[in-house]
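Dear U.,

For the methods section draft, I wanted the exact inputs and outputs in one place so we can describe them consistently. I've listed the two proteins in the order they'll appear in the manuscript figures. Please don't edit the token lines directly; just add comments below if something needs changing.

First protein:
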Amino acid sequence: MAAKITYTIQKELGDLSIAPNGWKKQLTYTSWNNREEKFDLRSWNEDHTAMTKGITLTKEEALKLRDILNEIDFDEL
């Protein structure tokens, strides 16, 4: 039996996309299993009761990702 996962979305930071079925790919600031909040990127249904697999980032990792994205020439790719 899988352990129950708990989460509390502290803040919805932004939507990256919305699928035709209403699911949103979102960046949120979320606490998982009553741990310290992290930046979280995944798709959620409309009422945040179901989710896809996603990734979590610490503040330091999010800042590093921001720096990497700022250095990419997206027109080149």
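Second protein (the one for the lower panel):
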Amino acid sequence: MAEIQIREGKAPFKVSSVDEPCFTYYKIVGDLSSGTTPVIVVHGGPGAGHEYLLTFADLWRDYGLPVVFYDQIGCASSTHLPQKAGDRSFWQEQLFQDELDNLVDHLELRRGFHLLGQSWGGMLGSAFAARRPPGLRRLVLASALASKELASRGTHLLRDQMPLNMRQALNEAEQKGDYDSLAYKDALDFFYRKHVCRTDPFPSAELLPALKNLSEDTTVYRTMNGPSPLTADGSLNEWTVISRLPEITAPTLVYNGEYDTSHDLAQVPFFELIPRVRWIIFPGGGHMCHLEGGGLRERILKVVGEFLAQKETADNMQ
């Protein structure tokens, strides 16, 4: 079993339209000099921070794969930019692509790395992979979305399955622009428990940091997504990676849960257009399969670990 090693740091990140110095916080579990390809884990939200994905730290323990976690700019332990709240032109995909490129170079990983993106992290990861960045070996898209339009269609299908009174509360909140009513919060709680994380009780220790990050600084999530997963009106509304998917040459694993907020509709383009791809739907799973019980957490780690640890051959090297 690989010895657990943890190293933290900050990568300076120059943002052209920001006068103050910025940085990206990162945490490395394992030894980057071990000779095995490290895995960079890209969190969702946007703005959730890395903590809820620490399940994947076990890739080092179980498969000897070093794991790099990081907090994207604007949230958690990286530089916060509250002065950019509501600036839709600033909070765009390119900013986060630049940050990821900067982190790869800072950690000197161009010799080879895997990428695992969850939710929004998978959206960013698929766009990043489509550029064929030097060093990218394998890609995991965990509960990701190929486009916001398909995501919205999937969300509406899930909304249609909710009790009538909850649907009415959602519609009323959106019409009034008031998302603080008890009825809206009850509907949101129902949605979270059925589709986001299906473990009861919630795995608070793992999820609490993400919820805290999202609630204490709403700059990134509110600007890019909207007031909630059920009400999206942010800068990502027109986002799509579909036309870029055929450019991804890295072998790719796509997965989502049976009840996932990342509906099957939003996975189909990944499966149809990425040249070398495998798609798995985990029965009984929600958006946070990697935190869920009933053996799901263990199955996710096994599938991801075995995919990333496969022997690398010349035809899958970048």
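Candidate sentences for the figure legend, describing the second protein: Residues 313-318 have pLDDT under 50 and may be disordered. The chain is about 35% helix and 15% strand.

Thanks,
Y.
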